[in-house]
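Ticket reopened. Same input as before:
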Amino acid sequence: MSGQQYLRGNRDRSQRVLWGAAIVGFFFLILAARLWYLQVIDSDRLKELSEINRLRFVPVAASRGNILDRNGKVLVRNTPSFSVAIVPQEVKDKDTLLSALSRYLGLDRDELLQRWEKGKGRAKYFPIVIASGISRDQLEFLEENQLWLPGIDIEMKPIREYPSGILAAHLLGYLGEITEQDLEKEEFSEYNQGDYVGKNGLERSWEKFLHGINGGRQIEVDARGRYLRTLSETRPTVGNSLVLTIDHAVQQAAEKAFGDRAGAAVVMEVDTGEILAFVSSPGFDPSLFAGKMPQDVWKSYLEDKRHPLENKALKGQYPPGSTFKIITALAGLESGMIDEHTTVTCKGSYDVGKDTFKCWDKKGHGTVDLKRALRESCDVYFYQLSEKVGVDRIAEMARRFGLGSALGVGLENEKSGLIPTTEWKEKKYGKKWFRGETLPVSIGQGYTLMTPIQLASMTAALANEGTVYRPHLVKRVVDPDGRVLKEYKPEVLYRPAVKPQNFRLVKEGLLAVVNEPHGTGGAARLYEVKVAGKTGTSQVVKQRDAKMREVAYQYRDHALFVAFAPFEKPEVAVSVVIEHGEHGGAAAAPIAGTILRAYFEQKGVIKKPAAKVDESDEAEDAADRDEQKEGDR
Amino acid sequence: MIDRRLFTNFDWVFFFLVMLLIGAGIMNIYSASASYRATGLPFCIKQLYWTGGGLLLMVLVCSIDYHIFEDLSYWFYGAVLVLLVLVMLVGKTTMGATRWLNLGIMNVQPSEPMKIVIIMTFARYFSKNYAVDGISFREIAYPLMLLGAPALMIMKQPDLGTAILVILVACSIMVFVGIRWKLLVSALLALAPAIYLGWHFYLREYQKNRILNFLNPERDPLGSGYHLIQSKIAVGSGGILGKGYMKGTQSQLRFLPEQHTDFAFSVFAEEWGLLGCILLLMLYLFLVLWGLQIAGRCNDQFGRLLAVGVTAMIFWHIVINIGMVVGLFPVVGVPLPFLSYGGTSLITSMMGVAILLNISMRRFMF
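Engineering reply: fixed in the latest deploy. New output:
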């Protein structure tokens, strides 16, 4: 730039800045003039508008979809919940109102007064919620007397209701107010503060189907905030319903069979993977999460060492114990290391180097072949077999059944279990696999972990001789008009290539477990239907700490049982885990038997005991079904 | 690198002016969000955190000589442009608009840094291509391309407010540089057909509705005209003295939409009245004039244009936001600097302030 230009630029420059300031000033003057107009000239009119002619936007929450069992019985639905709010400026006689409310709502007057005072100092006409979750009777009283009690406002929102009580609580899950963190996630981009979302179980994992779309109403209210008319309305869209694969009767029988014991059970159709019952015990009351959770109940849930809030069927990982012998036996048969005639002598223990591995029966089983080894659950037979087959071939067989990975039942946080291999150990611990570690694996101890879902799925694939279906819980998603949006058909996950005769050898062993003398699973026997099964007892602490087990609950062994029935043409597979139940045959097998009985009663194969028919129950059932039809329309 | 003169020349007046506005903003956000259900941190506390983060960034920006931006400006431009393309391809969609990019650790909205980057780019371009007698037809082709690419992409997201701002800021710089009469007149003449085409082919339905409702709010008093009516009621019912802090019925009863973000000013106006508003406007006016003065005192063309651009950015935010809240402009989502809640907007404004401080404290370095 030349000197002359620079000088010219310099003068020019301050001129430009002045011009800029003038433009800025001009715009600010316009803004100020507009504010003058609104806040001085037009102020009275606008003040009046803000006081008198008021429009309110009332959000209308969408009803969530229902959750039904496979036969259309309602497991979760919505019910209106009412709360009372007060608009202080509209109250004529505060004392009378508070006294009346305290009398009819059964609330402490001082408490009401406290809430009133807390809400004061806020803007005019701001409604203060003073009681929520009031009953229908109380509501009726308030509605009848609203004219005499000016200033009260009744608000309604739908909350979850559980017609079947605490049935399948873990599976269904519960709702809670959306958190700040969730609001920032993409999946919740359409949600607002204060909305309710599924916190776990199906409510969480199927949120996007269940939730629906919120609506809203523009209403005009008078000076007292009383409703005058609706000016426009966007109707909320009701959420879609889920039709589960769960069978209410089987689920109920299974939960009842558990009593107050801790554990899990999964019941699955052998040829579809549909889950008929999904139990985690003990349960909890999901309706408490819909309203106000009493502190003491919450505390008792948290302190209970049986962990009632934990979904053990989904997230519980247990050493499978002797139920894993199914896999070890198949690995042995397929590798050609054994056949049905191979025998082993059991003296009650087996020595590897300096270590002694015990059979559960100290007396020993004598000469054992495969069928007897399964029937009486002889550990020494499988110890010796595992020495021949090796841990990696056992793991390979387990993998063919999809063990060691989550099967995708349609719930979040499904666990994968663990199938150890030599490679796995080197990666995880940087150490070589010891010979002595293979033996516990053969009987489902050591590192091996399985979920109740995997136990049932493994048993189903054995029963149908070679197909692992995806275990699933949702059969259909149905929109509010009853149209089917999604249908979940059986899906093949794996086809463990095992020779049919080898499947049959193991199945016969399992038949013997339940039906022959000396079988460990006699407690699961049904007389009308042939049941085959396998017991398991898995250690929580090492054998040498056996003394501790006698004292403390949390050190006792887990009891397991897997079964399928009918033997000739299998329909259903069951897995049962009783935490710290000690013996699979004594604790878990009878529950499996009860569940299977319930299933075959439901099918009409076994006649229901003709005893007491609870009429009120029947009536309720009929009412539920009616409601369902209405929802279908 | 750190010269002692930097401290003595630090523009404390300007800095405290900004802190005063941020303080007023936090106080106002507290009132505006008082009726919200409490989940997580209150908005005013979060705004406080953002302020803290913004201050750290300001220190960082001030410690670097702004001339570095001259060399880096095209690189910045290229990088943000790539991000905008990525938004179009793999962006995150919320509420029907695709504005965000998920970078794993955090979400970014590239249209926001574009506001500052376009300033740097234009400042750089016009400091190197000095148009002595004003910008002519030939000289405007290249800047138009630089502006058009990001502006069209931002409009497509759609984020009309930000796009308009980017265009206004770029035009402000060009006007400051000087435009020949012929070009200015033809540009104004070309505006009419451009608006016509844009209306028919570019704007989405909701954007058209907003503009139609602005022209005639009674057209849809409950839909998008609702915001405008309620906001005007809020501002006007404040009167001269206001209803008092935390006592605004329009805001506390939540008649106002987005009352802690884009409509923060109507909450302020309702509660503090005309007196409060005029005081606030004067603070803003002072801020903008101070920015222009920084530009006037700067001795190099790049710094001067940078200062003008940043000042224009803050100025247009203020005018469009308040204009929208009082019903002078249609509703476009433009926040009010320092008063509206929102980390992105606050950080962008504070970055702008940091650049101005940077230029101001280095004015004697030549």
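The CA atoms of residues 41 and 47 of chain B lie 10 Å apart. Residues 4-78+114-361 of chain B form one domain. Please confirm and we'll close it.
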